[in-house]
Amino acid sequence: MGTVMWVGLIVIAAVVAFFIGAFVTKKQFKQDELKEQAEQAENALEQYRQDVADHLANTGKLVNKMKENYDQLLSHVEETNQLLLEDRNKAPAEPYFSKETTEQLQASLKERRSDRSSAAAQPADYVSGESGLFAGQNKGSEHSKVS
User: Fold this and answer.
1) Measured between alpha carbons, how far is 4 from 10 in angstroms, rounded to an integer?
2) C-alpha triplet 98, 102, 103: angle, nearest 5°
3) How confident is the model at residue 147 (pLDDT cuts 50, 70, 90)?
4) Which run of H or of E encompasses 5?
5) With 60 as the cut, is the pLDDT of residue 144 above it?
6) DSSP SS3 for 105
7) Other beta carbons within 10 Å of 135
């Protein structure tokens, strides 16, 4: 029985060692997997930081370019405004109508004012006599059409 007992103890020790080894191996495997995930997360974070830094640098360049364009636009507007003001001071204002047309318009305004001086004067758009669609038709023909 001594030998059987020793063999039994060895078998029990082997089974216990097998389970302990499996447990330790699983734990080590999980730990290695977690380390790998942590490294991947650190790499992803570093890549994200680099992307953000690149984006901010690009945004800074674009803002500087936009500022330069705005400054160029502002100087162009100031130059154009200065040229327009100089031209206005150099050249007299051109009338919209020619001299003859202006004189005729002023004369017609004076005539209208004199016509409108009386309270009995007709409005400017009033037409004396017959006008419109029924001009020249007599009243008798209108009554015959109605009946």
Assistant:
1) 10
2) 120
3) very low
4) helix 2-90
5) no
6) helix
7) 9
**Three-state SS at 1:** coil
- Residue 95 — φ and ψ, nearest 5°? -70, 155
- Contact status, residue 134 vs residue 140, Cβ threshold 8 Å: no
What pLDDT is attached to residue 32? 83
Q: Are 130 and 136 in contact (CB under 8 A)?
A: yes
pLDDT tens figures, 67-117? 999 999 999 999 999 888 886 666 666 777 788 888 888 888 887 765 555
What's the token pair of residue 114? Answer: 């004199």
Distance CA 88, CA 93 (A): 7
Whole-angstrom CA distances from 53 to 40, 44, 58, 63 are 20, 14, 9, 15
Tokens representing 72 are 């160029």
**Tokens representing residue 20 in the block:** 């302990």
Q: Which of 119, 61, 9 is nearest to 1 (CA)?
A: 9
Residue for token digits 């023909």?
Answer: 141
The two tokens of residue 103 are: 């004189």
